[in-house]
Every structure is written in structure tokens, then in C-alpha cells.
Give the backbone structure.
Amino acid sequence: MSTEYKPSMDYWKKIVMVMSLGWVAIWIYRTVLTPIYPEIQASMGNVSNAEIGAIASFYFFAYCSMQIPCGILVDKFGQKIMLMCGFTLFILGTLCIAKATGMTMIYGGSLLAGAGCASFFSSAYSLSSANVPKERKALANAIINSGSAIGMGIGLIGSSVLVKSMGLAWQNVLFIVAAILTTMLCVFTLVIRTKSKDNLVKQEEKKKEQTVDVTEEKDSPLFSGILCSIYFLYFCTCYGYYLIVTWLPSYLQTERGFDGSKIGFASAVVAFVGVPGALFFSYLSDKYKDSKVKIIIGLEIVAASMLAFTVLSPNTTMLMISLMLYGLLGKMAVDPILISYVSELASAKKLGRAFSLFNFFGMSSAVVAPTLTGFISDITGSKEISFIISAGLVVTGTLIFVIVVLQRKKTKYITEPA
């Protein structure tokens, strides 16, 4: 009887669905507070904008700081345990903010929430890498990623309607989020299996037997040249995305003359358009595996062009086209392809750590981009140069990635036996 490790067909589909819902829950939390900052500000005694802005900074600081430790723990204890522990902490942090009587308590809750969901990225994508068939990995990662766009829309629209239109207290919105997170905790407990050591060994043996392209080397060290180039490329990719997420509404209002309703639509279109783009290009990546690197490079170059053209657009129509094309061809589209590429380069035993490093560098941009953009805006009086800088970063990251890939091809060709 064959002992080959074969994930259940039904199980990998459940994993994709559950991980997508996990991103929905996380992004609801990440965006639900943004529209109701004035209400929070008023309830806390009219604290400054800097103090309100620090709520997100504390969250992302904890989230980034815990990426690598969580990746190590995921590899050691398994995805299920880490997701359950992480979301328990996430729920406690959310409730802490809902019950807060001062900014210190809100900051503490943000730290707990950020640390709590830090284990999700490495858990989600190591689960998909371990269970999803090779020919469906990029597409599966795209479906998982699409949860972030859905969650962003629900968070932004939901809190605006509940608090601003229906008069619900902002604290009650956090209780609703906590209920959503509790539901996800139950789903993780019921659906995700505990991986046995035997299955991990079988999976690793199967992975080593697979035939790979000359551009790929299984079990690359976590800080190999190719993986480091991917980490940096992801930082550059995320920098432009989080610049848009945090500062695009302000830029559209203060420098391009958009009114309230247009600002909301223009900001949301980047996320929603990204879903079909991610699904389409992930499908291409799965179908034409030998062209995966070319697809990554093409998407990054176009995304950089659209970031620059966002501020160079002469009119509103061209600006909206630029934003839509960036949403279609930018971070959301390239994310699942990069993730599947990392899964091909790293050992199954090190997937959690590889993904935690990958996400650490990417999410570091969420800490750097908003603050640096604000600093540049204070000095120059405009945010336009920040968009140009983000485009330049994407081009730089792509060029480094291309150089490393070409060098690896050259090395592989020279060292191959005649």
C-alpha cells in the first residue's frame, strides 16, 4: 500500500475558504476604526490627531515584531494551536479597546490585537502550501488574499453606517468585531487538523521528489540571495500599497479636489478591483509555471508605472484609470504568486519561518510608509513626491530581483554536469 502523503481534496478547499474568512475578520478590524476616529477622539477628551494615529502604529508595531517569533512557533507547534492562541489574544485586545476609558488602554488593546493576529500569515500560507495541489497553489493563495479586500470594504462601510448614520456607539462596533473573531476561533478549532509528524515527513519527501525548473532550488536557506531579494521586493510592493491605503483619501481631498463620496469610491476601488486581478494572474501563474518569474516582473513594472501616474495624471478620469489599473495589477495581483514562489523555495519544515520573514519585511512598510509620507508632506506641503518614491522603490526591488534570478540561472548552468 502506498504511503504517499495526499491532502484530502475536500480539506484543502476548506482550508482556502477558512483562511480567506480569516483575512476578512482581520481586515474588518484593521479598517473599522478609521472612519470613526472623530468619535473616538471626542469620547477620549478631544485628544490630538497624533495620539489617535498612534492606535494603528501600536497595532502594526506589535504585528511586525511578532512575525518571526510566530513563524518559529508555527513550525514548532503547528498552525492550529498558533491560530487558536493568536485569535484568543486578538479577541482580548479588541475587547480591551471596546472597554477602554483612556488612550493608554486603547494602545494596550492595539498591542494585544497586533500580537494576536501575527501568527495568521505564516499559519495560513503554510497550511495552503502543505495541502493545496501544486497546480492550484497560486490561485488558492489569491482566493485567500481576496478576503482582505472584502474585509476592508466591510470595515470601512460598516462602521460608517453603524456609527455615523445609525448613531451606534463606537464601542459597540468593537463588540461586533469581537463576536466575528470569536466565530472565526470556533471555525479554526473545528475545521483545521493537527498535523502529525509522520505527515510532515511524508510531505517533505514528496516535495524533494518533485521535478523543478532550473530557476528553483528546494530547501533554500531562509536568507539565501533569492529569498532575500523576494523579501525586499515585497517590502517595496507593500510600501506603495500602504501609502495608498493610508494617504490616498487625504491626497484626493486636499490636492485633487475630490468630495466625500468620490473619495470613498476612489479609495475602495483599489481593493475591490484587486480581487479579479489576483484571481486571473494567479490562474496564469499556475497554468504557465515556467513563466512565473516573468509574470511577477511584468506586474511589478506596471504597478510602479501606475503609482507614478497617479500623481502625474492630468485629470480625474486618468487618475481613476491609474488607480483601477494599480488595483488590478498591483500588490493584490502579485501577492499570491510571490507566496507560491516562496513555498517552492523553502523547505516544508521551514515554511512558517519563511512566510513570517516574508510578511515581516512586507508589513514593515506599513510602519514606515505612513510616517515617512506624513513627514515629507509636512516639509514639502504635498504628498506627490511620496508616490514617486514608492514607484522608484518598486522599480529598484524588481531590478534587484531580476539580477538575482539571472545570476542563479547562470550559476545553475555553469555548475550543471556536462
Remarks:
- The mean pLDDT is 84.
